[in-house]
Amino acid sequence: MNFDLDNITIERGCADTPLATRVIRANANRAPVSYVDDARELAKPDARSLDPFGAGKRRMIVARRKTPFLMSCPAGSSRFACCGYLVLTLASNCPMDCSYCFLQEYLADNPAFQVYANFTESFGELDRLIHTAPEKHFRVGTGELADSLAFDSMTAMSRDLIEFFSARETLTLEFKTKTDEIENLLAVDPRGRVLVSWTLSTDAVFRNSEHRTAPPSARIAAARAVLDAGYRVAFHFDPLIAYENAERDYVELIDELLDTMHPKNIAFISIGGLRMTPGLRSAARRRFPNDAMLCGEDVLAADGRYRTFTPLRLKLYRAIAERFRICGAEVPAYLCMEPAAIHERVFGNVPSRPAAVGERLASS
Ligand code: SF4
Prior knowledge:
This protein is α/β, with parallel strands linked by helices and 364 residues long. The protein has one domain: pyruvate-formate lyase- activating enzyme (Alpha-Beta Horseshoe). The chain contains 14 helices and 18 strands. An eight-stranded mixed sheet has the order 4-5-9-10-11-13-14-18. It starts with 6 loop residues before the first strand and ends with a helix. Iron/sulfur cluster binds next to strand 7.
């Protein structure tokens, strides 16, 4: 991927770190580089910009993370999520720009694209964790507040992560991406401990709403390449968007995926509908006034989010579940942020406990 940066700022205390050195080398003088003692003020929105969030995506900051890297999954309720899923925050914000992205609201006060130069300190946190629970398997994802692989050609963080995780039996690393930036992945051996997941959207959603991402066919091709290189792969059909002809397009997308790999090679799929808090919906419509995908039939649900009208999203969920069902091999599937009653109406059975799903994915 080729993302444009307006500038790069490096905290002086990080100037000699391997990460800063890699960024400077990969930048090759394209974007101006400056040094500051403390970059926190620069991470805030630029009030002079007409689109402070969008402008933040083009300002890279290499800084020291001052808080822990490891967090429980936001959906979890205890310190370490019940499903064993943990989030590793190694960067904040994303150079791509999907109109529905929750970061528009979540990072509105800190929109700069930040990468943490001291990211290898997270390895100490992980080692302490597995020391306290040596019998437990953990899944650790890096794609929560940033795309896991965007800018990996500059930072090469993935190599350090894969080397660390591939040597630890009870940890599984999960990258989540909408890029096809896999060169570093192809250069190291994951030893079965790394899963890469792609969000898959139809061409219509990609063209309308997923700016600067890799086209869906490029994501599928990248998945095939990492599968051949020894990685596990998974796919998120999330958010599904209920536009005219959506059902036909999603089925075609799944056909393309299943033409590229056998379903038994897919670790899991997740399915979720478009959902936006009122704040996110306002921000998204302000930034993308011409995106018709943001203006479908939605209703304010009990959880305070606008969700696609239930019969419309159920129809899409069922179409996707059915397409995978008739392919003959059972692909583990779960619905994201939906109640058990919706799960039963789509799959015809009660969902597994989140813990059971997590344990299966972490230890397989
Ligand atoms: S790729 Fe993901 S993190 Fe990046 S803008 Fe799109 S939804 Fe947000």
